[in-house]
Amino acid sequence: MVHSVDSFLVSSFRDERVPEMVDTFVLKEYIAGKNEDKEAAFICDIVEQMTELRFEAETEFRKNKRGAKNRRGELRLSVDEMAEKLTSPIKSEPPEQLISIIAKRDYGVLESLMLSMRKVLRRERSMVQVSNVQQIDSHCLRWLARQPGYTAAEKGGERQRLLAVVRKETKNTLENRVLKDFIYRASVMARRYIALYEKLYPSSERIKNVKKLYRLLQNAWKSPDIQEISAIKGNVRPNYVLLHDAKYNKMWVLYRQILTHVRIAEIVWPYRYALFGEYFCCWLSMRLCLEAGRLVFDSSYWVSIAPRRGRFFVNPLFSNIYQNSTGLLDWRVSKDCGELIVRNRGGNKTDIKLVYIPSCIRGGVQIPLDNTLYVVYSFSPEVKNSVSAQSNVLLLDSEKDIDEISTEFLQKIGI
User: Fold this and answer.
1) Under 8 Å CB-to-CB from 278, ≥6 apart: which residues?
2) How far apart are CA 359 and CA 363, in angstroms?
3) Which of 125, 260, 299, 382 has its CA 20 to 30 A from that of 68?
4) What is the Rg, in whole angstroms, of the alpha carbon atoms belonging to the chain?
């Protein structure tokens, strides 16, 4: 089956056209470590980077509280700060992510916590030897009254056992159930970080820290203490230990940060075409700042406290004019970040349209051979086969390809 490209243009996309767009099953399976879906990995990586931009905006706001902040908690982020975060990574190190921050900053606390997990004494009723009975309650008394005989020895029967209250030491507490879930989620994040960046940065200090943390988490997960703890169910309301114990509170803060990333990914999943459009425009705007010269109209971006319909920025002003010694470059972006227009120094105009094809789509896509440059995102082999040979198509099929195709993209628009 061959689909029309008009159905997948970011500028005209509608969720109801593809019901699978709102189904979060694939994303939840990926987050839980049960599959390695490429589209889910792509979206989670963008969420990670966008969240880091929000953290950067918060850091700058704390340094300079005279900076703007409106009532909805939206923070200002300058073009220079965004360009440094997105397009100027340290080449000798993989990108900084939440799991690498935890591995570097909080390894000692987590190691100490897993070596000294909190345990409590719980009262339980159990059959014990007559000579070992120390405490009974009303339930035990009723059971004892129903047994034949007059003395404790007679009621104990042949096995000489009575129902009594005993105290047993256990680690199956709320705080340890949270710790168990944290270990599992952090292990999944660490394993994927290592798999993604270990070969590219074999001598990286961040990789070493994450691998060290991963070994700690794996050893803790296999321990009998963790295995006897039951799984967490539903939403967690923190108890006194999670709020006031120094080690458990630190783990609780990290656990909430991981859940925040998960929640944001689930929020943007139905609108991932919009997230892709915004991220691509943001990335190319930063590359133009580096390649095409200074901005004629200086503008900052406003980062929202939470994404809205897949967008992290509030009315972003991606459109601008760039100037250097050879002339001007006019860069215009539509409000929905789905269509772009570039006029280079020679006066030539290039129309660009962004196309997002979710993994659930099967079959090829027919793209017209016109003067429009189509940037197509898809992991489908059928889609790749149908469009890869066209000269007016740039195929984007992983998060790395944004950097890889940027040079080709700038060449096509005459920079």
Assistant:
1) 310, 311, 312, 313, 316, 337
2) 11
3) 260
4) 29
E strand segments, 147-264: 161-170
Q: How many CB atoms lie within 10 A of CB 388?
A: 11
Three-state DSSP at 91 gives: coil
Distance of CA 197 to the CA centre of its chain: 16
C-alpha to C-alpha distance for 35 and 233, rounded to whole angstroms: 22
For tokens 């399976």, what's the residue? 29
CA angle centred on 205, ends 199 and 207, rounded to 5°? 40
User: Does residue 246 sit in helix, strand or coil?
Assistant: helix
Tokens describing residue 208: 């070493």
Stated pTM of the model: 0.80
CB of 10 closer than 8 Å to CB of 333: no
CA distance 243 to 260: 18
Q: Phi and psi (nearest 5°) for 198?
A: -65, -45
Given the structure tokens 């096995």, which residue do they identify? 159
Indicate the length of the chain as a whole number: 415
Q: Which of 284, 305, 313, 330 is nearest to 86 (CA)?
A: 284
Residue 221: exposure state from Cβ atoms within 10 A (0-12, 13-18, ≥19): middle
What is the full per-residue pLDDT of the chain (415 aa) written as tens digits?
Answer: 788 888 888 888 776 556 767 888 889 899 988 888 888 988 898 888 888 888 878 777 777 655 555 556 678 787 777 777 776 555 677 888 899 999 999 999 999 999 888 887 777 787 888 878 787 888 888 888 888 888 888 777 878 888 877 777 788 889 999 999 999 999 999 999 999 888 888 888 999 999 999 999 999 999 998 988 998 888 889 999 999 999 999 999 999 999 999 999 999 999 999 999 988 888 888 777 777 666 777 667 788 878 888 888 887 777 777 776 667 778 788 888 888 888 876 677 888 899 998 888 888 888 888 888 888 888 888 888 888 788 888 888 765 567 777 777 777 766 6
Residue 370, token pair as written in the block: 């016109």
| Burial profile 162-173: b = 16 or more Cβ within 10 angstroms, e = fewer | bbbbbeeeebeb
Write down the H helix ranges in 126-173: 138-146, 152-155
